[in-house]
Design brief:
Elements lengths: L16 E2 L16 E4 L7 H8 L4 E6 L3 H7 L11 E4 L37 H12 L1 H13 L3 E5 L6 H12 L4 H9 L5 H9 L2 H7 L11 H15 L2 H7 L4 H11 L2
Parallel strand pairs: 2-5, 3-4, 3-5
Antiparallel strand pairs: 1-2
Length: 265
């Protein structure tokens, strides 16, 4: 299938696509209908939900947003579906009022956890350094997200707010486990750029994200190939690749077999 057909057009989300159709290093392609990636799902229409849970067989949602984001945005419509499991796996360290237990007591005017965050000095590019922080801070969430992808009994969907940064890192690691070519992994990350204007416009309409986005040019949010290439190159140089990093944090050979079987022949 073409790159164009990987997009899934919904009323209430603008950056939704299938991880199928990507080339692997041994000449195969990834399966369609196993894992989707997306921006925020808060605005899904009834028709969207029917399509996702019906034709697309959605059964597991991996929500990478912080507890603060979820508290501010409110429960999404898929939380009312008993046939869809929601796995909340933040990629930020969250303490105090941001823990699971106290999430309901979050002050809606509190500072979002990424504001003012320093990038890891291990990578020169600041954006790649922020991505490395996800791995340093929440390897537990990364591992758990990949295990949900591999073990879902239907289609799994992973998302954050924009479907670019946190979602991009987690899906890149999944594709690395599936032995997708590096060029295709990076290209999938960059593909969000085709819809970045719509993504930013959508987030600016939300009180949760507007303050972070207003005053910054929309083009500054466009994904750059060198960012993802830099992160994956860092994992190559320091861990022997994404799989080496995952193994260091508790990922097993069985986990790899299960995820590979879900994503590719």
């Amino acid at each position: 299938m073409s790159e164009q057909t990987r997009w899934i057009d919904l009323d209430g989300a603008v950056n939704v696509r299938d991880l199928g159709g990507l080339p692997t290093r041994d000449g195969m392609t990834t399966y369609f209908g196993r894992v989707l990636r997306s921006d925020n799902l808060q605005g899904l229409s009834a028709a969207d939900i029917a399509r996702l849970t019906g034709d697309l067989a959605l059964r597991d949602v991996i929500d990478l947003r912080t507890h603060d984001e979820v508290a501010k945005e409110g429960p999404g419509p898929l939380t009312a579906r008993p046939d869809v499991a929601i796995h909340h796996l933040s990629l930020y360290t969250e303490a105090g009022a941001h823990t699971d237990v106290e999430a309901a007591e979050v002050d809606v005017d509190s500072v979002l956890p990424w504001q003012g965050q320093e990038a890891s000095p291990e990578i020169e590019d600041r954006a790649a350094g922020i991505y490395l922080n996800y791995l340093h801070d929440r390897p537990d969430s990364v591992i758990a997200a990949l295990r949900v992808m591999g073990r879902s009994e239907g289609t799994a969907l992973v998302h954050c707010a924009a479907g670019k940064d946190r979602t991009g890192v987690v899906t890149a690691l999944a594709l690395e486990v599936a032995d997708v070519t590096r060029e295709a992994v990076v290209a999938d990350y960059v593909m969000t750029g085709e819809r970045v204007d719509r993504v930013v416009a959508r987030l600016k309409a939300s009180r949760t994200y507007a303050a972070d986005l207003n005053g910054r040019p929309d083009d500054s949010h466009r994904p750059r190939a060198e960012v993802m290439a830099g992160l994956l190159g860092h994992l190559d140089d320091n861990y022997g690749g994404a799989l080496g990093w995952l193994t260091k944090h508790g990922w097993s050979a069985e986990d790899s077999e299960i995820l590979r079987a879900r994503l590719r022949p």
